[in-house]
């Protein structure tokens, strides 16, 4: 039988591990023109992730993006999640015509984009272009 002390220690260890895990995560940010423009001016690595909750391709991309967001190689990325259904002015700004679109920037320069890609290696390559 597990002692109360053992269970509490395990809980504290898990909490500490999760807290340190977030230290390596890329920074997901709510999209706004001002936040995006600021990230560009600062020369940050940026990913625009255009998705829709009903999109099966977006659902397939989600775990891949989460893994990359938590990869220490990409911890300096700023990731803007854009809703395809409700953020139409953002879609127009970036020339996006469909959900499951990923656009990588390094500062003001677009480094690459993909549409409908669910291959982990090619999505990682897109991240690398802006790293």
> What does the overall shape look like?
globular
**How many individual β-strands?**
5
CATH topology call: Glutaredoxin
The share of residues in helices is 40-55%
Biggest pleated-sheet summary: 5 strands, mixed
| CATH architectural grouping | 3-Layer(aba) Sandwich
Kindly provide the name of the CATH class: Alpha Beta
Give the count of helical stretches. Answer: 5
* SS-derived structural category: alpha/beta
Mean pLDDT: 86
- Supply the CATH superfamily name: Glutaredoxin
- Alpha-carbon Rg, integer: 17 Å
Order of helices and strands: HEHEHEHEEH
Number of domains: 1
* Beta-strand percentage range: 15-25%
What is the CA–CA distance across the termini?
49 Å
Which runs of at least 5 residues are low in confidence (pLDDT < 50)?
A: 2-8, 10-24
Strand arrangement in the largest pleated sheet: 1-3-2-4-5
How does this model look, in words?
The model is unreliable at 2-8 and 10-24 (pLDDT under 50). The protein has one domain: Glutaredoxin, CATH 3.40.30.10. Helix 3 (56-69) crosses helix 5 (120-130). With 131 residues, it is an alpha/beta fold. Strands 1-3-2-4-5 form a five-stranded mixed β-sheet, sandwiched between helices. The protein has five helices and five strands; from the N terminus they run αβαβαβαββα. The protein has helices spanning 4-22, 33-41, 56-69, 88-94, 120-130, and strands at 27-30, 45-51, 77-83, 101-106, 109-115.
